Amino acid sequence: MFVDQVKVFVKAGDGGNGLVAYRREKYIPLGGPAGGDGGSGGDVIFKVDEGLNTLMDFRYQRHFKAKRGENGMSKGQHGKNSEPLILPVPPGTLVRDEDTGEVIADLTKHEQEAVIAKGGRGGRGNSRFATPRNPAPDFAENGEPGVERNLQIELKLIADVGLVGFPSVGKSTFISVVSAAKPKIADYHFTTLAPNLGVVETQDQRSFVLADLPGLIEGAHEGIGLGHQFLRHVERTRVIVHVIDMASTEGRDPYDDYVTINEELKKYNEDLTTRPQIIIANKMDIPEAEENLVVFKEKIPADIDVFPISAITRDGLQDVLYAIADKLDQIPKNEKPVEEQKERVVYRFEESEKPFEITRDPDGAYVLYGEQIEKLFKMTDFNRDEAARRFSRQMRAMGVDAALRKRGAKNGDVIRLLEYEFEFID
């Protein structure tokens, strides 16, 4: 089964908790705090494996979670960092954050890696908080939570040449006779339900990867037929080969087919109109094809190459393969990633995100939220009074108390943070 679009959830490992411990060894008076830091949580990393050509591995497992770091130990020993969770993906994988739409990674080369979710750092042990004023602190940090993300993963096949055209014009037959690909071939529309890849070698030992991209009909860019599902695979091809049924076996005009398919490519992505295009006039073994070819050549621009062939009788195949190979020789192999920015990067000042926000629930409780304050809360060990007092001081330093008073909070009002509730004391 060919899978080229999936949605998954990933969570990097949380950091290990710091430890509260003291040195109690013979002949070492006033040993002091000796709690070690927790280890870092594992990252979630996507790594390109050129042996894969589908996202099938993500179809049945949709949740991936890296291991958390080891907790800190006594005698100031650091907890062990967790190994990253490495997930293999095929070349051409595009990773987006589903919630924000941000492109996180565009992976095109073998063994290329991208950190998709960063593991949390380990919490600091009590030995890290010792000061002359407080030489024996009785608290430590919990580990930082690992990043969690909902991802949308797309595969855009990396092929040198993309075959486009209406259903039943002979694309699958063409790829089956010029390469070792074995697509299903039948005399009805949408026989091909997934892209087929084939490696083609010319008689002068030049080779290229050819992709048969099914499902293009009028309205494909809007999702009609299978076009919306597979048009994305055209984006990475360097040459577009347009296969046309020159014999009009289904009653369509060859020139109308040519115009319609090019219009769909343009509506999907205007950049595709700048790609070199070669036209294959297929089914030339049928008598009507010769007359149609003459009319067709009169209507199209003179600089566009048209190669009459018959995929069934294999006439004209070598000429078109040489032409494709010549075209590819003129185009650089390493093209920019599809999502790479084309504009010059200009620095713009951006305000840092507010550490917290305040809203009110219908029952009158004040709700605190924000990435910074929520992270601080999760890294506080509320089982220790000194840690709770430290959290209170940190909130005051952030300006939470003043902001609550400004919003009208009074003694005894309920303050909510995540799923916990506190009482406001002025």
Automatic annotation (TrEMBL):
Recorded family membership: Belongs to the TRAFAC class OBG-HflX-like GTPase superfamily. OBG GTPase family.
Enzyme class: hydrolase
PROSITE patterns assigned to the protein according to its UniProt record, in alphabetical order: G_OBG (PS51710), GTP1_OBG (PS00905), OBG (PS51883), OCT (PS51881)
Official protein name in the record: GTPase Obg
Purpose of the protein: An essential GTPase which binds GTP, GDP and possibly (p)ppGpp with moderate affinity, with high nucleotide exchange rates and a fairly low GTP hydrolysis rate. Plays a role in control of the cell cycle, stress response, ribosome biogenesis and in those bacteria that undergo differentiation, in morphogenesis control.
Enzyme Commission numbers on file: 3.6.5.-
PANTHER family in alphabetical order: DEVELOPMENTALLY REGULATED GTP-BINDING PROTEIN-RELATED, MITOCHONDRIAL RIBOSOME-ASSOCIATED GTPASE 2
Organism: Terribacillus saccharophilus
OBG-type G domain span: 159-329
Region (Disordered): 69-92, 118-144
Subcellular location: Cytoplasm
Record gene name: obg
UniProt keyword annotations, A-Z: Cytoplasm, GTP-binding, Hydrolase, Magnesium, Metal-binding, Nucleotide-binding
InterPro entries: G_OBG, GTP-bd, GTP-bd_Obg/CgtA, GTP-bd_prot_GTP1/OBG_C_sf, GTP1-OBG_CS, GTP1_OBG_dom, GTP1_OBG_dom_sf, OBG_GTPase
Binding partners and assembly: Monomer.
Keyword GTP-binding: yes
